[in-house]
Amino acid sequence: MEWADARVWKAVTAMETDPADPVLMERLHHVHVVQHVYLQIWQGQPHDVRELSTFGTLADLHAWARGYYADLRRFLPGMDPARLEHPVTFPWADDLVKWFGEVRTATVGETIQQVAIHTAHHRGQLTMLMRQLGGTPPTVDFIAWVWMGKPAPTWSTSADV
Question: Choosing a second label site near 120 at 20 to 30 A (CA), which of 37, 65, 134, 141?
Fold first, then answer.
């Protein structure tokens, strides 16, 4: 997931058109705010939805997005595998009841899978947006990562953004 996110960010920062397109910014923000919020939930912290308006520049959003993976790498080694079966309490459970009529329990493991699937879904939207804005979207398929030898993520630098 990090490899694919890093490739998307490299492609965004390489665009000849203005990469700070509001729709592109909103979608990038959405992907990464969900990642951050779920990590906060897994850690038992109050969730803090950082609003897009708090990012002054694309570089600010990029730095925050990239920081998720450092936080995740610090968190995961301390996770007991049995914790994957623990139920997750969603701060937005009341909204879920309104939308779906009831809320069933989800486990930590299921929500980890949700974050990966959610990110991949929106990454697809981002590649379409990049193409519409004149950019060249990267290949970010999981199997491409495997075929390429599972390379480490290569993030663009703040100077690139």
Answer: 134
Q: Which domain holds residue 76?
A: 2-151
Is residue 61 in a domain? yes
The reported pLDDT for the residue numbered 141 is 95
* Within-domain flag for 157: no
Mean pLDDT score of the chain, rounded to an integer? 91
Separation of alpha carbons 34 and 117, rounded Å: 11
Does the pLDDT at position 54 exceed 70?
yes
DSSP notation for 29-89: HHHHHHHHHHHHHHTTPPP----GGG--SHHHHHHHHHHHHHHHHHHGGG--GGGGGSEE-
- Global pTM value: 0.91
Please answer whether residues 110 and 133 qualify as being in contact, where contact means their C-beta atoms are separated by less than 8 angstroms. no
Does residue 104 lie in a domain region?
yes
Euclidean distance between CA atoms 135 and 133, whole angstroms = 6
Q: Read off the CATH number of the domain in which 58 is found.
A: 1.20.120.450
Question: In 66-92, which positions are buried (b, 16+ CB within 10 angstroms) versus exposed (e)?
Answer: bebbeebeeeeeeeeeeeeeeebebee
Number of domains in the chain: 1
pLDDT tens per residue across span 85-130? 999 988 877 788 888 888 788 999 999 999 999 999 999 999 999 9
